[in-house]
Amino acid sequence: MIKTNAEAVIGNLNLRICYNTNIMYYIYILSNKTNTTLYIGVTNNLVRRVWEHKNKFVKGFTKEYNLQKLVYFEQCGDVTRAIEREKQLKAWHRSWKNRLIANQNPSWKDLYPIICK
Fold first, then answer.
1. What's the mean pLDDT when you consider all of the chain?
2. Which of 30, 77, 105, 115 is most buried, judged by most C-beta within 10 A?
3. What torsion, rounded to 10 degrees, do the Cα atoms 6, 76, 117, 41 define?
4. Right CATH for 4-115 from 3.40.1440, 3.30.60, 3.40.50, 1.10.3210
């Protein structure tokens, strides 16, 4: 399969998209209301997964720290690349993560309503 990278713009959001299949994977970042704590995850169904976090069906870190605000996400069509990207972002300094989020979502608003449309 041909691997393609593209950038898409939805409103003021610049999204990084990489794909090579019909199945999409999402690397996402959740935050709390005050944007002091971040969680990075990967899923093949972003709407469902964020809904699970928001409704506290996911036990552990996100539930304990009340991380319910989707502040960033990327799409990727290759699960291996998605997991690699998740690990890469987890290893980043907090300031780099803040910059990444601010570039796509300057006001750090919850993107969940946008992805539910």
1. 88
2. 30
3. -130
4. 3.40.1440
Q: Which residues, listed in sequence order, are joined to residue 75 by a DSSP beta bridge?
A: 17, 26
| pLDDT score, position 22 | 77
Nearest Cα neighbor of 28 from 96, 116, 97 is 97
- Give the whole-angstrom CA distance, residue 62 versus residue 71: 14
- In tens digits, the chain (117 residues) has pLDDT values of 334 444 455 555 555 555 444 799 999 999 999 999 999 999 999 999 999 999 999 899 999 999 999 999 999 999 999 999 999 999 999 999 999 999 999 999 999 999 998
d(CA 18, CA 74): 8
Beta bridge partners of 16: 7
Q: Where are the domains of the chain?
A: 4-115
What CA–CA distances, in Å, run from 25 to 9, 63, 75, 76, 79? 18, 22, 6, 5, 6
